[in-house]
## 1
Amino acid sequence: MSDAKEKTRAEQLREELCRPQKHASELLSAEELAAADAFCEGYKAFLDQCKTERECVDYYVKKAEERGFRPFEDGKEYAPGDKLILNNRGKALILAVMGKRDLAEGVRLAAAHIDSPRLDLKPAPLYEEKQLGLLKTHYYGGIKKYQWAAIPLALHGVVIRRDGTRLSVAIGEAPEDPRFCVTDLLPHLAQEQMQRSLAKGIQGEELNIIVGSRPLMMDGKSEGVKLALLQLLNERYGLVEADLLSAELEAVPAFPACDIGLDRSLVGAYGQDDRVCAYPCAEAILDCGSPEYTAVVVLADKEEIGSCGNTGLETNYLQDFLTELALARGANPRTMLRHSKCLSADVNAGFDPTFPGVMDQHNASFLNRGVVLTKYTGSRGKSGSSDASAEFVHWFRRLLDDNGVLWQVGELGKVDEGGGGTVAADLARLNLDVVDLGVPVLSMHAPFELAAKTDIAMLRKACGAFFSA
Ligand code: MN
Ligand code: MN
């Protein structure tokens, strides 16, 4: 037997038995790559307009209304093809398209979150120290605090004035706008700071944002800068200090989304966790036509702090909505939920060659190798995970293969290296089948995160396939 023949046999076996992980460039034609890039132009524009959950909700309410979606009404019976919006307090959103099948056969639900880590202003934020005006913050979500110093910040949010009128704020986005900034210590005087652990390089109470430095008057008395800033806020926005106490103001990175790399293959931007999943999910339902099964997208708030509160998925708004839909059509809501299939769309940690040590390379996800199917998340022995069943993961892998979606598996780092969770566990509580599917991201939770354009386009394709399955 010759060597050549042996090799052929091995090659044959490899073809029959192995699953080679392909790079998107091997699979996609030049036209398909161009289409992926084009899809990400819309994505980048969305990122620049939507840096908070409220802005994401406003964006998709408007876009959905233009596409024929109408506000959902309790108790109303909807017919196949009807398109519904449920706006939960301006911070979470459900979009649905009624399917042809009986609701008791289940719905197709895709969930992604639209909140991202950031610096929230404290209830009494404004103070002055040595003729500098500053804002106190309390960070939101899991951040490495040192990353938020010495970068330009924008202020977003909502202030309700005493008379009940409402002010939407986004200062620091237009080119001519001022920006804001957390300061860091110069290296010359940072001997003590440099000995701190990375976790304490910048500490929570050091995340103070500079907002001004010109006092109203130089009368030797303190607080001239604070007074000048309050005067500015009053003249421009009709605010007084007490209005800040009830406000919801957030500092987010002020730079826009951009292409990364000479080949422009990646998107760099703030807030890609989880808008990189929210965008493909929402775009897919807008385009889903008249589906077989009722299609539902939920864009959730508060995932980054545990899905708590009345706009997080720990509460009942999604279940209540689905129950109302079922009851109005005479379907048993519990039967519907039990037969429903859910795609929990969230990012996973992409393999970073600079930090290979935290990954099991056999189970890591890689940029440009397609969407990541994550069977379980959690930490310390899968704790806190919903752990999808073999049956359901199989259903999904068939769906992805049959629709030409490039996919890979992924785990969030090595066993016992750390861990995390998604809304999958909250959704599993509804007694439906759910698995995580998303996009691998580098520098997750940093003010500037990276994702590959082909993976983002693949998630759009996966969501489209899911709603037509
Ligand atoms: Mn996420
Ligand atoms: Mn996150």
Note: DSSP finds 13 helices and 21 strands in the chain.
## 2
Amino acid sequence: MSTKSKQSGKQHPICVIGAGHVGLVAAACFAEMGNNVVCVDNDKKKIEGLKKKNMPFYEPGLEPLVKKNMSKKRLRFSSSLSGSLRSSEVVFIAVGTPPQADGSADLTALEHVARNVADALDSYKLIVEKSTVPVQTGLKIKETISRYRTKEGKFDVASNPEFLREGKAVYDFFHPDRIVLGVESAKAERILKDIYHGFKAPIVVTSLVTAELIKHASNSFLAMKISYMNAVARVCDLSGAQVEKVAQAMGYDRRIGKEFLRSGIGYGGFCFPKDVEAFQYISGKLGYEFRLLREVKAINDGQPVFFLNKIREHLWVLKGKRIAVWGLSFKPDTDDMRFAPSVPLIGELLAEGARVYAYDPQAAKEARQVFKDVLSPKGNFVLCKTAEEAASRADCLCLLTEWEEFRTADWNRVKRKMAYPLLADGRNMLDPGQVKQCGFHYIGIGRKG
Ligand code: UGA
């Protein structure tokens, strides 16, 4: 579906609860399709900012979409949950489900929403789970609403998991590979099909629990692909094989597919790490010990350490060394540093007494918060304004996020700035031959330097 094609199905007033990476994108995109949308969040500061058209995070293409649809009066923001619920027929829940110490998802925010829905149930409402939730959460939402409702308003609970990627979220919303509708009534199915009218993607209509499981199974499978390739990269390192060639040749097999076979310092973000753990946890709770997922996580957790060992092997002593870090966000085109592998890696470097000079094109604000306790002059973490400033006088340059700006750097110039030309490419993003020609020593993952 192009962002220009408008929905021609029946209109249903929509409330999206949560103005985070999933909720805000969904709200803006539903509005772009011609729906009337109110987006609610209990963070008043965020809502006040959005009312003034200030974006709470960086996501390519989102800001113009929000501004346009606010001007057209199809999108508004509110911090009043009950008022917004009353004026809506379809309620998409996109609140956070953060991980707890035991790996399970914290569903407090969902329960809170369910209780508010129970209060506002004066007419039919379709409650749709958009955030990633453990299987059987919908049953709990149904129970909660039934338990606390004061009026006899009818409702349905459905699951419509979101598969968008940060950094490509707007594109992904309008170009889904599939649309999953987990429904328990013909009415719920009809309403959701109205909303997704005009999309070309296959629609998988299924039960509520199946839809919930599809999301966890998909994210965990993708994480497993990455960990698998990171394990293969270890064997490549030991045997002298080239992991990217292995991945390329594997990817031509359509049963394997080309995507998500890139080795590196590991997956991060607020989805894969928490979803792998939450899926493992809920499987265990239901009676199946999903040991494969435990290994997926263990391989991923080991990647920053493995990478650091390679750097240490080359530099010998890290204490007092100046290490440049290019890239802090968990992947390019986002300022998100949640569960970014840069965080444990920098933590280790600082613990060993290295001084870290870091640069990221978008994540400086996040980084100031994440590393507030070790920021210079109190600690040894310096946040730089440019990539070149970070590389100046460094004994090693670590590439941790594959931002385009890094790919096209003037490597001859960078080399001249550094005290010692060691390039540790944590994303296998550079051509080792090319940078070696500029005089660099090269460290990659599963590939020869
Ligand atoms: C992921 C899924 O891709 C989305 O489909 C899903 O909707 C989303 O989680 C979610 O559950 O909300 P996202 O976390 O935005 O999206 O990021 P991805 O592009 O999937 O990348 C995740 C991590 O894997 C990044 O750290 C990336 O660098 C890493 N990665 C990815 C690799 O290390 N190798 C690869 O080959 C691909």
Note: The domain at 273-443 is CATH 3.40.50.720 (Rossmann fold).
